[in-house]
Amino acid sequence: MEFSTSPNFQQPEPPKLTKVQYFFSQPHQSFFILGIVTAIISMIIFGLMFKGVVSSSISPKLFHTYTLFFPTFLSFFVGFLFTTFPRFSATEPIKQESYNRIFFLLLLSTIAFFIGVVFNESLMVAGVVTFLLGQILAQYQLMKIYKISQALQKSDQFWILIGFTFGTISHILFLLSFIGIHSLENLAISLGFFNFLIFIAFSVAQRMIPFFSHLIIDKNPKVLASLAILFLLRSLLIEYGYIFEILAGVLLTLEIKRWKMIFFSSHSIVWILQLAILWLPIGLIIGGLSSMAEKFTDLSLLYLNIHLVALGFLMTVLIGFGTRVALGHSENQMVIDSFTEKLFYFTQVVVILRVLVSFSDLIGTNLMILFDISMFSWGVLFGVWSYKFFGVIAFGKKMS
């Protein structure tokens, strides 16, 4: 048999994937969509619980923190890390059957949890148990990659796994809180927020944001270790947590200053990430000071310390990384249109509105009105962003 050697000879194109095949072809797609849908549903239910429309065996606070920590952010983390962790570690990509197995376990667990919260406590607890199992399997998958990796530098991967371990501990404490051991609730929330969410997000951000900003930095290997210790002390000594929040903010201020980053000189998809990383030390310092003010005065600032970091850093970095991953992994150009740039600016409007909720007593404005406006603004931001990028993430839609 002879094969043509003509320059016009072309290899046959690979068969085009169906939408379902494409959806499961890369891990970030299915897990990101799960995180998006979960975030929207959880905020709707939380708003109804806060207003007393929906009742449950757990408090609105416990529901709000659990659903954002695990069904929402864990899904985003798994999707992102199942894509990037093998690249960090110079190993083969994770096999599709492996990440699909975990995805369906998290999906079914989330459905069981949401139904159980409203209708059946046993189903709710079953959902938490099976979601915890999915989290453990996801961490085990990352640990296998870390173990076989021959990469010369594995420090970032190590600390990401430490963050996952704290997340698993927090998840177990949440489970115990759900079944009646309420004394563990504050520890579960603090470990889950600071030692899991913030620590993992910063571990990734301090690696990726300087790279996106075209900076070559000589990273200080002690920063992540010091941050892990400060966050752990913050969680274990909750009554004095403001001290460790402020110290962590000062540590990160000095570290980010050392990068010599020229902020806001890059295009939108980079400056939104730079803004996010700036919010972390700012949020920790201001949040720590607000917690100290609450301790020594009659002020009640409605978890200002948590929301400054959650919205300023986590939400902003999620929108930034989510946009970049959506475009980069769908073979779209890494270009932001003016509408998306306006959404980036609107992220900061959402942050400011939530700050106003915490200061409602001081500015003499009705709390529920500000709460409704804040919730609505978050819903607009997340809903519009999700509408714009849902098809890009899920099916590789080409942006016009």
Topology at a glance:
Blueprint: H1 19-23, H2 27-50, H3 60-89, H4 96-119, H5 121-148, H6 155-178, H7 185-212, H8 222-236, H9 241-258, H10 268-296, H11 304-328, H12 338-358, H13 360-363, H14 367-395
Helix pairs in contact: 2-3, 2-4, 2-14, 3-4, 3-5, 3-6, 3-7, 4-5, 5-6, 6-7, 7-8, 7-10, 7-11, 8-9, 9-10, 10-11, 11-12, 11-14, 12-14
Total domains, how many? 2
Q: Terminal Cα separation, in Å?
A: 45 Å
DSSP strand count: 0
Radius of gyration, in Å, reads: 22 Å
Helix content: over 70%
> Which segments are poorly predicted (pLDDT under 50) over 5 or more consecutive residues?
1-7
Q: Main β-sheet: number of strands, strand sense, barrel status?
A: none
* Structural class by secondary-structure content: mainly alpha
Number of helices: 14
Proportion in β-strands: under 5%
Overall shape: globular
The succession of helices and strands, N to C, reads: HHHHHHHHHHHHHH
Mean pLDDT: 92
